[in-house]
Amino acid sequence: MVRRGGEVLSPRPRWLRTVVRRVLEAYPRPPADRPRELASYIELTLKRYGGRPHVLRWRDFAPQMGRMPWPTPRIATPGELADLLELDAGGLMWLADARGLERDTPHRRLRNYTYRWQPRPNGPPRPIARPKLRLKEIQRWILHEILDHIPQHDAAHGFVPGRSVRTHAALHAGRATVVRLDLEDFFVSVPTARVFGIFRTAGYPEAVAHALTALCVTVVPATEWARIPRPSDPRQVQRHARLGRRLATPHLPQGAPTSPALASLAALGLDRRLVALAPTLLAGYSRYADDLTFSGGGDLPARTLARVVAEVARDEGFRVAPGKTSVRRHNERQLVCGVVVNERLNVPRAEYDRLKAILHDAARHGPAAANRDDLPDFRAHLLGRIAWVGHLHPARGERLRARFDEIAW
Fold first, then answer.
1. pLDDT tens-place string over residues 52-68
2. What is the distance of C-alpha 182 from the center of its chain?
3. How far is C-alpha 66 from the geometric centre of its chain's CA atoms?
4. Which of the residues 82, 187, 306, 395 has the least number of beta carbons within 10 Å of its own beta carbon?
């Protein structure tokens, strides 16, 4: 390192050997995947020893993969990433929005996303950002080739292969007390730095991790946010402002294939802390996306639990949605992600009765008369709802299927 330093610096400085010694102490192994970090460390070291290098010539640098804990593809440079995605350098920069056009351009054809706003009863509308076709294909590639290989926490049940709403709800069936809390604006609360950290942990060099991160995050155009009126309810003004600040900075778009997996991975620290907290209160814990659920005995201190969880969530960069915490005892209907868990898993009685009435109507008067919402594939819709009931309560599912078989299609 001293010899190579002497070749690129002119004249060879007296402090070079000291700086090299400090770098080797800090980095026993070459940080070939962290050139920017190394450069920052050298800059700080030079300031300490008064070094002011004059570069005579530059040498090429070849970045390398870092430690790879999971079987993800090796991508050492942005050029290799572009080749894998069948893009040229300009195409990669465009889709990664290196110039920040998504935020400022008023022209929708120049954007990588289309936007719509989903109304919510007790808050500002939910932003749905859907990537256009080419970017969506790339995000699906990132999801299946990279993110699917990164393990989720055992407490996470949303968007995880082999886990579901059913496995999440089953952990809380038959418990005396069920406490549910929601995270406010879960996807858009995930900062870019945390997404970057996920790709770095997978072993990707800084430049590649930056490119992958940019392909998975976005900012909402100012003109789109300007269309959303300021709420008249004083209780919603602060939440409206918080959402606006989050949307104005890079965040995970709700509507991108990669966002659910990345958001869940970003909540790893939250899951670890809440899993450690739950046994101290003799409770169990699991999470489905932004739904945090605890359950325990009749003496579970729900208020203390809710207060501590809110503090932990805040430490982890999230926020518990105000007014959406639910505490249900065994003498009340206990719902977890829409599933009744009082004694065993079941659908709410009203939902079951409504489906049964639709099937009865379809059998007596025909499916066209029963399809009051003009669903395009009414038969598949009914079969899906019956399958969901049967997944939770097989006997009820069989009875509904028998009624379905009476329909003349």
1. 788 888 888 889 999 99
2. 14
3. 24
4. 395
Tens-digit pLDDT profile for residues 355-401: 999 999 999 999 999 999 999 999 999 999 999 999 999 999 999 99
Amino acid code (one letter) for 151: P
Rounded to whole angstroms, the Cα distance separating 181 from 337 reads 11
CA distance 329 to 352: 23
Could you tell me the sign of the dihedral formed by the alpha carbons of 187, 188, 194, 198, in that order?
Answer: positive
